[in-house]
Amino acid sequence: MKKYGNRELCPGAAALGILLLLILQPSASTKGVLAGLESCAFQVIPALFPFFVVTGLILESPLAEWLGLAFYPVTRLGLGIRQRRASTVLLLCWLGGFAVAASAISRLYQQGGLCRRQAMLLLVCGVGSGPAFVVNTVGLLMLGSAPLGVCLLGAMLTANVCTALIFRFLFAVLPEKREPAASVLHSTGETNQPAGLVGSIQNAVHSMLTVCGFVVFFRFLCETAAQALSLGAPGFFALCAGLEVTSGCAAGAALPGCAAMACCAALSVQSLSVFLQVRALLCRELPIWPLAAARPLHLGFSLLFFRLFVRWLPGAAEAISTLAPRVICRTHTAPDAALVLFAFCCLVLFRLERGSRQLRRRKQA
């Protein structure tokens, strides 16, 4: 009889546990799935889908060389990456969040613009929740204070940079492994795919389906597990923060006395759902262990910087002391989606104008 180790048995045991949750908690399962679908329809898709398309168009255009020049000191001096497109990728990572970060870093790595270590550093520095979610959803809607959202965002980004700086020195000490020929393999595989707007939309649809699948599944898992375990407020926060970042922030915002710090911790940990989404969107040659290994260090930095920024930003400290015990969360981010759609339309018009100019030149020749 063949013997199985814990590594082979754990996925099967987890699947049986999820099946039991479906059977024993049908109403909670339905509620969790519906909550995930609602989140995808009103928050995730409007905010992320245009951003996925815009990211693909930008990285294929000359804009990638100069759009992120303001962040070039971070990538060149801090991370040691000379490629100017890396600064644009970092800008897209910080604007779009973890899903856009994984997609953009993979694309630049496959284009040969990054080596393996540089891509891992950019992963540590770039992956996190976007400003639309941190400032609007967590800060304004969950905590009731936009200044708190700004402090959270500043703490997350500063912690990203500090953690990436430390990992740069750690990577310098570790022996360098042989570089896999990712750019060659992927460049030959991508020649059959359409380029430009068509290819960007196709890639965006695939990425969007991946993200929505994880969102729905982990919302269902949070809801059913919470009903089955009957946890108190601290335990419910720990469960949600470990499984899904949005549910973790919502549970943290309901904690009396430490709501803002709990949301900061949930945003720093990022949750299992985020790790799996990044793994699904990241190319196979790039490992995810640096992102997971950086979480404890990032958590310490983010809590430290958040406490500092709260003292410096006017109105943030008062907002912490006057948080309501009950928080009603809404997840519509229409202004952010409209801004990204505007940028998307500008890029489409830019490509159409350039195509018409090339066509005129060919006719004149």
UniProtKB/TrEMBL annotation:
Keywords: Membrane, Transmembrane, Transmembrane helix. It comes from the Bacteria. The chain crosses the membrane at residues 48-74, 86-109, 121-143, 150-171, 253-276, 297-314, 334-352. The keyword Transport does not apply. This is Sporulation integral membrane protein YlbJ. It comes from Allofournierella massiliensis. The lineage of its organism: Bacteria, Bacillati, Bacillota, Clostridia, Eubacteriales.
